[in-house]
Design goal:
single chain, about 290 residues, alpha/beta, 8-stranded parallel barrel
Length: about 290
């Protein structure tokens, strides 16, 4: 069974830019997503996939390097996979997907891993699950999906799919459909037992807005966040790392239950705590690095 993805910051790097790939690999990102999709022009895709395969084969990876391939309904997806799977990527990111697409990707990976002499089933998958209208209706249907490690949502692609002129209201907050997609992604990931990853904050110069978005995302249950620039990584890492105060409080909750074995509820600092409090405390302590 594939383990849920554990990464606070997931930094995109264009597959056709050796300089940006090198910079991403030297960053403090927990994971690098080498992009063959949106960051690469149509005419550059054949050369980009060859360059990415070479990069994976020859570069010492300080952190996991996953590859975002092109959507399965394009002519680029299979050539992407044929080029990069023998180079042993740490994972595959599948964009604009439904559950059926993820199942089909699993079959492709089975065949390509076997052909390359790799362990079949070893390459995990991260699905971008709300970038199409069909994907939105499928986001709660990923339980038991082979290879699945994480789900994320996409505010920009989903807006395009809906024919929207913008995805934000007059106050700069996401309009209702995109708030819904975000909530569905979070809930769908929980139902599937995988990690929910927050989408990008598009303005990489807006550190304050990024911090606000990232802290809110961790508070509601997301376990990491996509980044489009190395400068965003330290902000995201800090936001998804429990503070000393949070850790101390969680440790106190666990200690209170340990001191009362078999108890369903315990008192702590005037508050009555039950099993959900204990489970949340344990989950927070598991996020320590």
């Amino acid at each position: 069974m594939t383990e849920p993805l554990t990464a606070r910051s997931l930094l995109f790097a264009p597959g056709d830019s050796p300089r940006k790939l090198e910079k991403a690999g030297l960053s403090a990102a927990d994971l690098v997503i080498v992009d063959l999709e949106d960051a690469v022009a149509e005419s550059a895709k054949p050369d980009a996939r060859k360059a990415v395969a070479e990069h994976l084969k020859t570069t010492h990876r300080r952190q996991p390097h996953w590859v975002r391939i092109n959507p399965l309904d394009t002519p680029h997806a299979l050539p992407d996979l044929a080029a990069v799977v023998p180079a042993k990527p740490d994972g595959i990111v599948l964009p604009k997907a439904t559950r059926a697409d993820a199942e089909r990707l699993n079959h492709y990976l089975d065949a390509l891993e076997a052909a390359a002499g790799l362990e079949v089933g070893a390459i995990p998958v991260f699905v971008l699950a709300t970038e199409t209208a069909a994907g939105v209706f499928d986001v709660g249907n990923y339980a038991g999906c082979p290879r699945l490690a994480a789900l994320s949502w996409g505010a920009e692609d989903s807006a395009t799919a809906l024919g929207a002129t913008s995805n934000r209201d007059d106050d700069g907050e996401y309009d209702f459909p995109y708030q819904l997609f975000r909530a569905l992604c979070l809930t769908g990931a929980a139902a599937a037992g995988v990690s929910a990853i927050e989408t990008i904050h598009g303005d990489f110069r807006d550190a304050a807005g990024l911090e606000k978005m990232a802290r809110k995302a961790r508070r509601v249950g997301f376990r990491g966040m996509l980044a489009i620039h190395p400068d965003q990584v330290p902000v995201i890492n800090a936001a998804f790392s429990p503070s000393a105060e949070e850790i101390a409080h969680a440790e106190a909750i666990v200690a209170a239950f340990d001191a009362n074995p078999g108890a369903g509820t315990v008192g702590l600092n005037g508050a009555m705590l039950d099993m959900p409090h204990l489970k949340r405390a344990q989950a927070l302590l598991a996020m320590r690095r």
